[in-house]
Prior knowledge:
The chain is α/β, with parallel strands linked by helices. It is built from ten helices and six strands; from the N terminus they run E-H-E-H-E-H-E-H-E-H-E-H-H-H-H-H.
Amino acid sequence: xxxxxxxxxxxxxxxxxPVVRDGLSGMFANDPAFAVVGEAADGAEAVxxxxxxxxxxxxxxxxxxxxxxxxxxxxxxxxxSTSRVLVLTTYDSDSYVLPAIEAGATGYxxxxxPRAELLRAxxxxxxxxxxxxxxxxxxxxxxxxxxxxxxxxxxxxEVLKWVxxxxxxxxxxxxxxxxxxTVKTHLLNVYGKFGVSDRAAAxxxxxxRGLLTPRRPTES
Length: 220
């Protein structure tokens, strides 16, 4: 008697570009080992769908409007999600890689990865294995050799710039098109990275580190 075929790996794709989502969905649809159970256009939708659909793996872009990928990964971890998050993005700088890994991402791939590599990465992520593109692995090795404490994500830097300019959490949320709770999450992350406990101390530390200059941030 033949054993039953293994259940397909259930995928949720989170990316703000419809063409990217369609391309990824089509690619995985051609392989019976995978099943795309949902698509999200931003981090908030990804968190909501992950909770409702319980996919095995979430393919997560990082730069999305509203709730970004790092914030979504953080919220999934806090919610106790069992879904594994595999970052799929075009950015491999320290300011993207390290916050994503620290937030709980299982792996980090670039969008120029070959199809076969992406399929292997999703299988590995579903098996709770870490997966890193070569350039990302090299950056993490450099991080171990020469740690650079307190790196902020691009969105954390944006939030801090507006706070330094005197904006309230509500005003920051309106300007960046994110929720007030997301602003608070970013600030808490900044406090933890800087080892401070309030807004004034965070702003002062950012100036000390040369991350802020005394001018008003431009509208995005």
